[in-house]
Amino acid sequence: MDTPSPRAVLVLAVALAGLSAPRAAYRHPNFIVILADDVGWGDLGANWAETKETPHLDELAAEGTRFVDFHSAASTCSPSRASLLTGRLGARNGVTHNFAVTSVGGLPLNETTLAEVLREAGYSTGAIGKWHLGHHGHHHPSFRGFDYYFGIPYSHDMGCTDTPGYNLPPCPPCPRHAAATRVARKDCYTEVALPLFENVTIVQQPVNLSSLAARYAEEAARFMQRASDSGRPFFLYLALAHMHVPLGVPPSPPTPGRGIYGAALSEMDALVGQIKRVTDSHGKGNTLLWFAGKHVPFPASRCPVKTPRAPAIAGGWGGGGSSAKQTTWEGGHRVPALAYWPGRIPAKRTSRALLSTLDIFPTLAALAGAALPPNRRFDGLDVSPVLFGWSDVGHKERQSHPPQVLLHPNSGAAGKDGEITALRLAQYKAFYTTGGAMACDGSVGPAEHHQPPLIFNLDRDIQEQEPLDVASREYQAVLPAISRAYAQALEDIATDNVSVADYSKDPAATPCCNAQHVACRCQAPGTHAAVLDCRTERRGTRLWL
């Protein structure tokens, strides 16, 4: 991934000029949700002073509100995205683990997305970036409420490219000739190139990862301009490739001390800064920009790629194994989050409310004056009082009936996928299952089921090192409330309108621009004419839906 091209800068400049023109006030606010992939809590300078690569995000924090107890709904890709767009955990919406390149299904079609709710309320809706909720048939984002889509259908390590970037293990580039020797490597996709979609059309395969960030910024500016021209409020869901591996290799040697990870973090920060500038030109009081991490950094095989930042907000309790991605430890789901809306959201504020990506759906629906879909229950809350500084509670409200809790599902560690294995009640966090994920040293913590549960007081022990003694007064005082809340949560899910995702696979569902070419390339590689041909074929090269 590289710095923005002159063409992208020109498009952004045009957008800035157009958006700064006086326009009638919108009836409803615009919404921009920026979701960063595999970003750590300490990757923002606003959270950890030793991080120097995020001046634009730090500015966003200074001009808005920073949330320090904010959580991803799951600790892996597809479930976390499904929960954001439905306001429901995987135990309800059916998405409990990741979809594959060959997946036939996706987010169940009977689940209503945030985009569908907002489009019904009069919004222009756009998704730019990673989808990973099904790409075949009507699971594609163009059929899930988005008027416009530009991005990749799943993680950018799930297909080969000509610019593979930095990964561990390193993956080879796409083969260019049928007779080329195929190098089979664990965790590397070498048969099919990573596609880039515009709506239902594959416009590039393999995608050029070096220019992807600039293209996302360009298309985001264009989408906002089109919405502004139409006079409709807009909802833009921008799901970044950063900081998921492979990381882009910088065009010049990284600044000493920053490394490749730092360079990629700077690129992500610059992209967010560009989006903020366009947003401000639209009118600072018109748009809510919500930035959040999807979940925290990658599993053990990729640990050497990332430089540790900030104290280990993770499971320090003994037992071994990973305490980050895929787990229910704080290191797996506590993510950075910022909200910016000049004139509405207080500036220079730090909120300790217990919030989640689950809350984005009901909050934006409420702000748009839209009703939530009927005949189903939601795990997210309307947290607009927290955004506006009127409250600092969120899911911490113990006095409600039933008490507000935040549930944490298993995302690939010990236990059944999607099963509720931990919960948060005020400052207390209870674990019913631990272990099962690989740590950076290669160890895998043994799967353990805890009955009664492990309970930590996060106010005193954010690193989750010392569970409360089961014989202590504190443990005995809080256990009944936790047990009731856990039983009520499981009963609530069991009696809900629960969906079931189709996880079946078929090679025919693989996005392929041209099956006659090696790695599904759109054209023969290596010539200027092929690039031109790709552009002229954009209307005709479609995924078989």
From TrEMBL:
Cofactor(s) listed in the protein's UniProt record: Ca(2+)
InterPro entries referenced in this protein's UniProt entry, alphabetically: Alkaline_phosphatase_core_sf, Sulfatase, Sulfatase_CS, Sulfatase_N
Keyword Ribosomal protein attached: no
Pfam families xrefs: Sulfatase, Sulfatase_C
Chain segments annotated as coiled-coil in the UniProt record: none
Subcellular location: Lysosome
Family the UniProt entry places it in: Belongs to the sulfatase family.
Keyword Glycoprotein attributed: yes
GO MF annotation terms: arylsulfatase activity; metal ion binding; N-sulfoglucosamine-3-sulfatase activity
Segments forming domain Sulfatase N-terminal: 29-370
Cellular component terms per the entry's GO annotation: lysosome
Signal sequence segment: 1-27
Keywords, in A-Z order: Calcium, Disulfide bond, Glycoprotein, Hydrolase, Lysosome, Metal-binding, Signal
Catalytically driven reaction(s): Hydrolysis of the 3-sulfate groups of the N-sulfo-D-glucosamine 3-O-sulfate units of heparin; an aryl sulfate + H2O = a phenol + sulfate + H(+)
Organism of derivation: Aramus guarauna
The protein's name: Arylsulfatase G
UniProt superkingdom: Eukaryota
Encoding gene per record: Arsg
EC number: 3.1.6.1, 3.1.6.15
Primary enzyme class: hydrolase
Location, primary (coarse class): other
